[in-house]
């Protein structure tokens, strides 16, 4: 067992491939920048602009990354609570992706925290800031990672051949799912609540008391879009190990997800419209900030909504993929707007925060490292592949 | 000290009236505490920047050069290593100077946003910083004036005016108030200061614009301003609104326990319902 485990940990397949070389070098440089950040402090790698405390790590990695990880709780709801078996084949890849997203993007918070050596303070009670939204987020991230790990753990047990443990872990799944959905509902919206107090700092087209609900709803279609994009990449990257029956089933899954996304996006767009009408700031639509708002809401939300709709109607997986990519770009723009684009919009461009190259490099390093970790697991554990005979599920 | 002699004390330019045996901090007859504050009379400030120097000395910050008048050419803002600054503004009523620092809100967004209570509103009024801070910068993100800032260092602290909290506890005045040669800074309880501000406006309607900045901004602040011109001409933002910003998140936070209890109950209910449906379906299949 030990011998085979060590051989399992070694790289599988060809080591020297264009992807490995390029992404490997990219990660190495990124790690260099990270070490530099921890030795010389944030200003060494981050473009510091007075009055702009957060940048791409919070806007892109944490806020958008967590929205993209929402696929896990959304699909566990559909599969384990509503018992829709169509999506059962993608539940493991999605939960794995969600779990890794939290691990890596919570890591981005460590990078951004100026006093990172105290990061565990909200958890150990070196003062519980129970009235703070971020306190809730800290606990939820931590607990949700555990819930996702429990949801995914049967696959680890199958990999290790631990039959008795598998039974125990399998029995915990529904509890973890219910707990996970509840935590997700709260912290997806809490990320929105986090910016509520910055009302005077956020452009009126973006600020509304409904931000938590908007974050929650956009997280659902952001998560589904991520599942679609991830499926697209995986179908190519893991074509050799993905079973034929899954490949045949995939268009049905994609069309189903597209319908789901279109429905949620309709609800989101309707809410956006209500917020705009109640806010009565339409005069601001024809200002430079208004154009960014229009790009986000029309170009990167309404257009992908139509793509999802027609993609589902015509069963066009290609159009659905484009819809997913555009919708994700829309989420990134939306979250970054709250964090630094529509934030203090009145500050002239020359004094604004503009991400520095090392900062963006680190942000992307986290994404690439996430992909490496994902591949490492998929190549070893029954994620896309069938579980061993002894672990056949009966549900 | 009755009200009349109190006002006299201020008019005569002495602040010793508030240096009672119990110190400068205000205690009500019933033992409860009242927020202290500072009234900044910008019509009296001459831009000597001695407050800047004294602040840096007392708080071990890099020392500014008060004689350097070139700093007035551009509007400056406070930073982690420069807790108070004096700006010069050309207004419709002439050129005036204004000292800026943390406003010490009555209901501070920074303290409400802090996940570890490192940013803390003292019962006496000052908003202070504690070293259990994790450096997440949510305080900076939430502050309507953009005051708290992380020091540009490998192992930084959050730097901002702490209202000379250690000095107040010893019964001393804040360093800037203590050092101001023009009595442009008046220390007292918020209530006393509002009385004083209204009196000044009433008695000198030509000298002051009829507005006390900080009386109601974001629910009221401990530092308040009297200006000759409208406050926005002195760089005092009116857009911060009148609502205490922590109220923005109370609705969400109140909803959390409901979701935490009711959502699992609902989810488990649906789970049980679909489970039975599935059993029935599979039984029917067997029979059929």
Please name the defining characteristics of this protein:
heterodimer, A: 395 residues, mainly alpha, Formate dehydrogenase/DMSO reductase fold, 70% helix, globular, B: 288 residues, alpha+beta, Alpha-Beta Plaits, 2 domains, four-stranded mixed β-sheet, two-stranded antiparallel sheet, 8 helices, elongated, disordered N terminus
SSE blueprint and pairings:
The complex is a heterodimer of chains A (395) and B (288).
Chain A: H1 2-9, H2 18-40, H3 56-68, H4 71-81, H5 91-112, H6 121-124, H7 133-160, H8 163-171, H9 173-193, H10 211-237, H11 244-279, H12 288-313, H13 317-341, H14 357-378
Helix pairs in contact in A: 2-14, 3-5, 3-10, 3-13, 3-14, 4-5, 4-9, 4-10, 5-7, 5-14, 7-8, 7-9, 9-10, 10-11, 10-13, 11-12, 12-13
Chain B: H1 3-11, E1 36-41, H2 50-58, E2 85-91, E3 94-100, H3 109-113, E4 119-121, E5 127-129, H4 138-142, E6 149-150, E7 158-159, H5 165-169, H6 175-179, E8 185-189, H7 190-203, E9 212-213, E10 223-226, H8 247-287
Parallel strand pairs in B: 1-10
Antiparallel strand pairs in B: 1-8, 2-3, 4-5, 6-7, 9-10
Binned strand content of chain B:
5-15%
Describe the biggest sheet of chain A? none
> Which structural class fits the helix and strand makeup of chain B?
alpha+beta
Unreliable segments of 5+ consecutive residues of chain B: 1-22
Count every helix of chain A, treating DSSP H or I runs of 4 or more residues as helices.
14
Shape of chain B: elongated
Computed CA radius of gyration of chain A, to the nearest angstrom: 21 Å
Q: What proportion strand of chain A?
A: under 5%
Task: Please give the CATH class of the largest domain in chain B.
Answer: Alpha Beta
The name of the CATH superfamily of chain A reads Formate dehydrogenase/DMSO reductase domain
Helix content estimate of chain A: 55-70%
Outline the biggest β-sheet of chain B: 4 strands, mixed
Largest interface: A-B, 64 and 57 residues
Please state the oligomeric state of the protein chains shown: heterodimer
Number of helical segments with 4 or more residues of chain B: 8
Instruction: Provide the residue-averaged pLDDT of chain A.
Output: 94
Write the element-wise H/E pattern of chain B from the N-terminal end onward. Answer: HEHEEHEEHEEHHEHEEH
- CATH topology of chain A, by name, is Formate dehydrogenase/DMSO reductase fold
- Compute the number of structural domains of chain B: 2
Kindly, what is the distance between the CA atoms of the first and last residues of chain A, rounded to a whole number of angstroms?
30 Å
């Amino acid at each position: 067992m030990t011998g085979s485990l060590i051989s399992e940990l070694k790289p599988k397949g060809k080591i020297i491939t264009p992807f490995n070389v390029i992404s490997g070098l990219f990660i190495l440089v990124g790690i260099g920048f990270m070490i530099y950040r921890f030795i010389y402090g944030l200003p060494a790698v981050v473009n510091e602009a007075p009055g702009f405390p957060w940048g791409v790590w919070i806007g892109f990695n944490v806020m958008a990354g967590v929205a993209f990880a929402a696929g896990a709780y959304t699909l566990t709801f559909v599969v384990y609570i509503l018992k829709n078996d169509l999506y059962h084949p993608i539940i493991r890849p999605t939960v794995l992706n969600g779990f890794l997203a939290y691990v890596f993007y919570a890591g981005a918070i460590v990078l951004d925290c100026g006093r990172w050596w105290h990061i565990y303070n909200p958890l150990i009670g070196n003062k519980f800031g129970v009235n703070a939204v971020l306190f809730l987020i800290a606990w939820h991230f931590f607990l949700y990672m555990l819930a996702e790990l429990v949801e995914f753990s049967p696959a680890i047990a199958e990999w290790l051949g631990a039959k008795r443990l598998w039974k125990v872990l399998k029995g915990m799944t529904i509890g973890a799912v219910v707990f996970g959905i509840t935590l997700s509902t709260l912290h997806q919206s809490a990320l929105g609540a986090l910016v509520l107090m910055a009302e005077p700092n956020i452009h009126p087209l973006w600020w509304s008391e409904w931000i938590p609900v908007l974050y929650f709803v956009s997280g659902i279609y952001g998560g589904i879009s991520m599942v679609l994009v991830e499926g697209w990449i995986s179908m190519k990257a893991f074509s050799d190990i993905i079973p034929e029956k899954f490949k045949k089933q995939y268009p049905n899954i994609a069309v189903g997800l597209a319908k789901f996304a279109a429905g949620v996006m309709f609800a989101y767009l309707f809410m956006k419209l209500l917020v705009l009408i109640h806010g009565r700031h339409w005069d601001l639509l024809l200002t430079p900030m208004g154009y960014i708002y229009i790009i986000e809401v029309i170009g990167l939300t309404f257009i992908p909504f139509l793509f999802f709709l027609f993609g589902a109607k015509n069963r066009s997986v290609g159009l659905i993929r484009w819809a997913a990519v555009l919708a994700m770009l829309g989420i990134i723009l939306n979250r970054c707007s709250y964090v630094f684009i529509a934030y203090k919009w009145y500050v002239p461009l020359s004094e604004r925060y503009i991400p520095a190259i090392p900062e963006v490099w680190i942000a992307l390093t986290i994404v690439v490292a996430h992909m490496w970790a994902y591949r490492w697991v998929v190549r070893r554990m029954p994620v896309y592949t069938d579980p061993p005979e002894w672990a056949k599920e009966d549900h | 000290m009755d009200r009349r002699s109190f006002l006299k004390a201020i008019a005569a330019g002495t602040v010793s009236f508030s240096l009672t045996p119990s110190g400068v901090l205000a205690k009500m007859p019933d033992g409860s505490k009242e927020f202290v504050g500072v009234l900044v009379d910008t019509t009296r400030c001459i831009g000597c920047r001695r407050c800047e120097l004294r602040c840096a000395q007392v708080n071990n910050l890099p020392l500014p050069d008060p004689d350097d008048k070139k700093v007035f050419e551009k509007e400056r803002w406070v930073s982690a290593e420069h807790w108070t600054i004096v700006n010069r503004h050309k207004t419709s009523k002439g050129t005036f100077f204004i000292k800026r620092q943390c406003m010490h809100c009555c209901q501070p967004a920074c303290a409400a946003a802090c996940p570890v209570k490192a940013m803390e509103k003292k019962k006496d009024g000052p908003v202070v910083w504690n070293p259990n801070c994790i450096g997440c910068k949510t305080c900076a993100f939430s502050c309507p004036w953009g005051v708290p800032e992380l020091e540009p260092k490998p192992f930084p602290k959050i730097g901002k005016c702490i209202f000379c909290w250690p000095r107040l506890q010893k019964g001393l005045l804040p360093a800037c108030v203590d050092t101001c040669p023009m009595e442009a800074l008046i220390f007292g309880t918020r209530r006393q200061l509002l009385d004083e501000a209204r009196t000044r406006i009433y008695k000198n309607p030509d000298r002051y614009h009829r507005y006390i900045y900080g009386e109601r901004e974001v629910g009221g602040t401990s530092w308040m301003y009297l200006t000759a011109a409208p406050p926005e001409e002195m760089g005092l933002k009116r857009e911060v609104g009148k609502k205490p910003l922590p109220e923005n998140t109370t609705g969400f936070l109140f909803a959390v326990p409901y979701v935490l209890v009711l959502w699992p109950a609902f989810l488990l209910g649906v789970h049980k319902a679909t489970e039975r449906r599935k059993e029935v379906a599979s039984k029917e299949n067997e029979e059929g």
